[in-house]
Amino acid sequence: xxxxxxATERRATILAVAKVLFSDxxxxxxxxxxxxxxxxxxxxxxxxxxxxxxxxxxxxLNEIACKRESYVDAVVNSDGSFDNVLRSITRIYVxxxxxxxxxxxxxxxxxxxxxxxxxxxxxxxxxxxxxFIEYSVKDLRSRQGVAAVDPxxxxxxxxxxxxxxxxxxxxxxxxxxxxxxLQELVDxxxxxxxxxxxxxxx
Amino acid sequence: xxxxxxxxxxxGLNCPLPILRAKKSIQQLxxxxxxxxxxxxxxxxxxxxxxxxxxxxxxxxxxxxxGEYHFNIQKG
Lengths: 202, 76
Hints:
The complex is a heterodimer. Chain A has 10 helices and no strands. Chain A is mostly helical. The mean pLDDT of chain A is 90. Chain B has helices at residues 17-26, 44-55, and strands at residues 6-10, 34-39, 58-65, 68-74. Helices cover 29% and strands 34% of the residues of chain B.
């Protein structure tokens, strides 16, 4: 029993160290030897837990997937309106990502490295927003609830806005926005977004 | 699958849209009536379990057929 616990702990430590290294240097910039060195173990021990560097990287990504944010709470407790649901799910996502900015760095690294599978993985993390905005804007347009905006472009605008706010606050620690808390900044951006698409509440 | 009173086609939609549409559809039903949801998002299995737990509705049946997920939800 204690041996199994040790193996679980070792695995968690490997994943934590690998995540930091992958987020600093990308997939190609890190070798198995370097991860082992950082852990103070031999590469053989590492291979006992993960058959390859690729498998280890996938497992780091799976850890993110398992932590998939639940937006059920946000929807259940909302009044069902577009602005209310959008604010709630964005708050949950921003909160979760800001607690672990290494994932943001991994997202940037994967974009530079051009791995399509990894790229797709990170884009899927944005799909709750892009899909929700696209479908909602289409629906609202038919009821004159928004201006005549292109739903695809509106979704891209939102994604770019929130992603940049996360980079500014969690990666660059930009002094320009230091007087604004992250959630405050995000709330202000959502207000701007709703104004830009001509959203009419109710 | 049991009979149902209203059907919601949530195929091709990702979280949070199926949950949001289910919430709106259930508002049209009377207590005891059943909403059938068809979805394609694999995450919808966990989402609808959580949805029913939090809203006091009952998940009568949940099944997978090909790439589709079927849920029967009885309004509480």
